[in-house]
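The freezer alarm interrupted the setup, so I double-checked each line after restarting. Inputs confirmed:
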Amino acid sequence: MTLTADLVRERVRGTILERIGDTPLIPLRRVTAGLRGELWAKLESANPGGSVKDRPGLWMVIAAEEDGRVKKGSVLIDATSGNTGVALALVCAVRGHRLTLVMPDRVSLERKRIGRAFGAELVLSDPLEGTDGAIREARRLAAADERLVYVDQYSNPANPLAHELTTGPEIWRQTDGKVTHVVAGVGTSGTIVGISKALRGKGVRIVAVQPDDALHGIEGWKHMPSALRPAIWDERVADVHMTQSTDEAIAMTRRLAREEGIFTGPSGGAAVAAAMRLAREEAGRIVVLIADGGERYLSTPLWEY
Amino acid sequence: MAVTVRVPGALRDATGGQTKLEASGRTLADIITDIDRRHPGFRGRVLDDAGHIRTYVNVYIGEDDARTKGGTDATVPEGSEVMVIPAMAGGA
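Predicted 3D structure, all chains:
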């Protein structure tokens, strides 16, 4: 069954999940002084689970319900080090599903505690193998137990579809069709692929940003040349590809809190830093996706300064 | 003093493809410098310009987070295992 925004909304009517989406779009005034282009931040931390991942989390679970993959006794499973785990745990708590999350051992305490708070069971994989190691472990577990339903955010078409039918149209509506560019990071790539499908045909330029190094600190983003390639990723969805250093991303994350009152994680700072480089060269109304809030990183060195 | 250092896949390009190395030194800084002698550039991937562990890298000495034991000044006992791991990873 093909999901629509109306169907998903109908399935979750009267629950907290109804509040996923319709996040604010806020102009950046101070950090952007002197730039040719104007920057607008789409604040995905306003979702109930605190991140952009609420959108695909909801849509992937509803898709599994609608196509009959989730039955009585089923346990959903996915590999995630962060926000998708929280989103899936939130959605599964409301929908009454059991959930197992595979994440690299030694992820921050917040991640383990939030997942458990929503009732998810955690499986910890080799920390040296990072998220790709968690993906391999989730695949292995799902193949060995037929009760497990592998959500697979990296291959699941409901991931980009959520952005195609919610995030993209919201941006268009909130800018009265005046958006010229959308800048977003690439992790699973669901965000950029979905927004591209919604807006590129309307003449919006799509800007995809990746970390500049395999060893990086931009939570949620992937350095594609060295990582397992998500099945949903297609470089052709973007008009511009940029890379971003972690050091500059962290500096911008801190500036956003002090100068714009936007408390975000490192990926938010990374996306704005990349968008500012773009806005130095190009005029227009540039929308930047801010994936989550800074609270999720309080135990990390990001805020120790 | 000899210790074992395990590094993540993301750092293999800086260690000639190795994920397990032997190194010697009294402190964590000594250990990293020793590896950097054989694999130039390794130090800069793990430590910032001020010589501190980069914000997005976690280093464990045995079970202890090196940041809680003095950072690069932390003593590394002989025979212990040092693990360098990315603090973040992803999928947006």
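Quick read of the result. Chain A touches chain B through 48 residues (CB under 8 Å).
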